[in-house]
């Protein structure tokens, strides 16, 4: 009888274990299928909307993936617990006994979830935006209900809890200012230098005609000493195009002015 009971228990719990593995695998496959379906929808929608709304589509897709992933995880846990005859009500009751301790631990999670909802509802940022949060800058590559992931120019990925986000600087929502400072030998006349710079501006305008909002212009001398003086040039570009234009303008200035 004892051996039979042991065999029955092994068969029962072995079956439950196999069932649990099946549920977990099925859930993971379901998440993969849902993600693929959302990716297809995302690609299809981005082909028919104006560019300004494409980031919104990316953000919405990331949010839906995050919500459905957590939902499926919850269903998996419920099904597995029920298979082992652990009622959810009992589990919640046990959790209620340590509610105070758990509450303190869950505060950050709840804070992250609420903050994540407000970030998305208020459209403060979107996937693809270049942002700065607490001295960390990069492109938003993923937005979830709990965390946000940004990737910097070095390729490093910063995972930031939504609840810890303070001031956000979003560089992708407004036009960017192009600022180039050039140092000129004190022996060169200011008017002559300004005249030579016009050819530089003309080349920049022709090359970046679609990216420039305001053409380059000389502000004037912003610094001087007995060796050299500094001339500042500014322009206005579309969001995040200023770095490329600044690099190109410096290159042309070196070729046209300093290499002579």
Tally of extended strands? 8
Overall morphology: elongated
Residue stretches low in confidence (pLDDT < 50, at least 5 long) are none
Integer-rounded radius of gyration: 29 Å
The portion of residues forming beta strands comes to 15-25%
Order of strands, main sheet, comes to 4-3-2-1-5
**Broad structural category:** alpha+beta
As a percent range, the share of helical residues equals 55-70%
List the helices and strands in order.
HHHHEEEEEEHEEH
Largest sheet: 5 strands, antiparallel
Helix count equals 6
Average pLDDT score: 80
Report how far the terminal alpha carbons are from each other. Answer: 102 Å
Sum this structure up briefly.
This protein is of the alpha+beta class and 260 residues long. The chain has helices at 2-46, 54-83, 88-97, 99-121, 190-207, 242-258, and strands at 130-133, 136-143, 147-151, 157-161, 168-170, 176-185, 212-224, 228-237. Helix content is 55%, strand content 22%.
Write the layout of secondary structure elements.
Blueprint: H1 2-46, H2 54-83, H3 88-97, H4 99-121, E1 130-133, E2 136-143, E3 147-151, E4 157-161, E5 168-170, E6 176-185, H5 190-207, E7 212-224, E8 228-237, H6 242-258
Antiparallel strand pairs: 1-2, 1-5, 2-3, 3-4, 6-8, 7-8
Helix pairs in contact: 1-2, 5-6
């Amino acid at each position: 009888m004892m051996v039979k009971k042991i065999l029955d228990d092994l068969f029962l719990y072995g079956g439950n274990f196999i069932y649990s593995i099946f549920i977990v695998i099925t859930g993971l496959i379901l998440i993969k299928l849902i993600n693929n379906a959302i990716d297809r929808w995302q690609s299809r929608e981005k082909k028919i909307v104006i560019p300004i709304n494409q980031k919104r589509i990316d953000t919405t897709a990331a949010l839906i993936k995050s919500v459905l992933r957590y939902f499926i995880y919850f269903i998996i846990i419920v099904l597995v617990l029920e298979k082992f005859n652990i009622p959810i009500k009992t589990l919640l009751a046990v959790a209620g006994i340590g509610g105070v301790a758990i509450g303190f631990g869950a505060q950050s999670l709840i804070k992250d979830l609420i903050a994540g909802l407000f970030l998305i509802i208020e459209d403060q940022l979107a996937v693809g935006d270049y942002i700065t949060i607490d001295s960390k800058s990069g492109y938003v590559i993923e937005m979830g209900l709990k965390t946000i992931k940004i990737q910097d120019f070095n390729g490093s990925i910063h995972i930031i809890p939504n609840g810890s986000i303070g001031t956000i600087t979003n560089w992708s929502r407004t036009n960017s200012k192009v600022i180039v400072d050039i140092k000129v030998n004190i022996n060169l006349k200011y008017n002559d230098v300004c005249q030579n710079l016009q050819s530089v501006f003309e080349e920049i305008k022709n090359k970046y005609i679609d990216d420039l909002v305001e053409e380059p212009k000389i502000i004037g001398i912003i610094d001087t000493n007995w060796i050299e003086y500094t001339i500042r040039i500014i322009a206005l570009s579309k969001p995040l195009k200023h770095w490329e234009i600044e690099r190109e303008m410096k290159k042309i200035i070196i070729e046209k002015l300093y290499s002579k």
